[in-house]
Amino acid sequence: MSANRPETLTVAPSPRSERLVGTSDDLDDLRVGLDALSGLAMGRLSLTDTLTAVATFAVQAVPGADGAGLTLREDERADVVVATSSFVAEVDAVQREFGQGPCLTALTEGRVVRSGSLGNDEEWRRFGSKVARMGVHSVLALPLQTAEGAVGVLDVYAHAKHAFDERAAHLGRLFAVPASIAVQNARELARATRSVEQLERALEERGSLERAVGILMSRSGCTREEGLERLRQLSQDQHAKLTTVADSIVDEAVRRARARRSP
Q1: Distance CA 243, CA 213 (A)
Q2: What local confidence, expressed as pLDDT, does residue 9 receive?
Q3: Among 10, 126, 139, 196, which residue's CB has the most CB atoms within a 10 Å radius?
Q4: How much helix, strand and coil, in percent to the nearest 5, is found in the chain?
Q5: Do the beta carbons of residue 37 and residue 54 sit within 8 Å?
Q6: Distance (Å, whole) CA 86 – CA 63
Q7: Could you give the CA distance from residue 49 to residue 9 in angstroms, rounded to a whole number?
Q8: Over 217-229, what HEC string results?
Q9: Can you say whether the dihedral through the CA atoms of 226, 232, 237, 238 is positive or negative?
Q10: CB within 8 A of 79, min separation 6: which ones?
Q11: Is residue 156 within 8 Å of residue 176, measured between CB atoms?
Q12: Interatomic CA distance for residues 85 and 148, integer angstroms
């Protein structure tokens, strides 16, 4: 492999990599990160806060890390991107600007990417050159794999060159396994919450429409279908949403009722 090309690491650790797990301090840091990860209170944190917490724990777990970012893949909407520090957010912005970088490679190819000299990498010349000038030289990009495929990527960065050796990469892979589960659970919970909110909004909108149609029926003696058609016509004439027109009809009826009751 060329010295200027980022190293691809196998997901399954070899016996040699097992011997390179690291010092007791490294293992203690990994345990702290894993304990914090297992203690995440799903449902009490927003999706963004949960992802940021996972990235923060990764900085604790991977020796040599100065910061981390996490990109959550969302097929039906924009990806969710978080960072533990401003320099990581700037690096991620450069990746999006150029459409290249270790995060995108790890996400699209599903492989672990490690580089110790981003400014000299041939795979992402424009990206690597710019972030090296920003003082960021090392990266460890870990795809978050689940049974459904990669749900995202955890990027760990360092200012120093060659900050992540095989030991750090192995610790990163160990951390990425439970991190993948935590991220997937957070994504599914967020999706379920959005579905409930959408259903509640739909029910509220339907209730508003039904009330407005009922008011029109009582005023003019029209049928329900004629009332709905009247609402649609008003929506077009006023260049307003159907629910907005319905709410205005209900609000007007309430004002009139209150005015009649006033002495």
Answers
A1: 11
A2: 36
A3: 139
A4: 60, 15, 25
A5: yes
A6: 20
A7: 29
A8: HHHHCCCHHHHHH
A9: positive
A10: 71, 72, 73, 152
A11: no
A12: 30
Angstrom distance (rounded) from CA 187 to CA 73: 9
Best CA proximity match to 102, nearest among 138, 72, 130, 73: 138
Take residue 205 and report the two structure tokens written for it.
Answer: 């909108």
Which H or E element spans position 104?
helix 102-109
Q: Take residue 155 and report the two structure tokens written for it.
A: 């990027």
Entry field: residues in the chain: 263
31-63 residues labelled b (16+ CB within 10 A) or e (exposed): eebbeebeebeeeeeebeebbbbbbbbbbbbbb
The sheet with strand 67-72 has its strands ordered as 7-9, 112-115, 138-146, 149-158, 67-72, 80-83
What whole-number distance in Å separates Cα of residue 170 and Cα of residue 159? 20
Quick count: other Cβ atoms within 10 Å of Cβ 243? 17
- Rounded to whole angstroms, the Cα distance separating 178 from 109 reads 20
Under 8 Å between Cβ of 195 and 165: no
Tens-digit pLDDT profile for residues 179-221: 988 888 878 776 666 666 666 666 677 778 888 888 888 888 8
Q: Name which residue leads in pLDDT, 99 or 187.
A: 99
Q: Which burial class, exposed, middle or buried, applies to 211 when counting CB atoms under 10 A from its CB (0-12, 13-18, 19+)?
A: middle
112-115 and 80-83: which strand pairing?
Answer: unpaired
**Locate tokens 């050159």: which residue?**
129
31-34-36 Cα angle (round to 5): 110
Output phi, psi for 229, to 5 deg. -65, -35
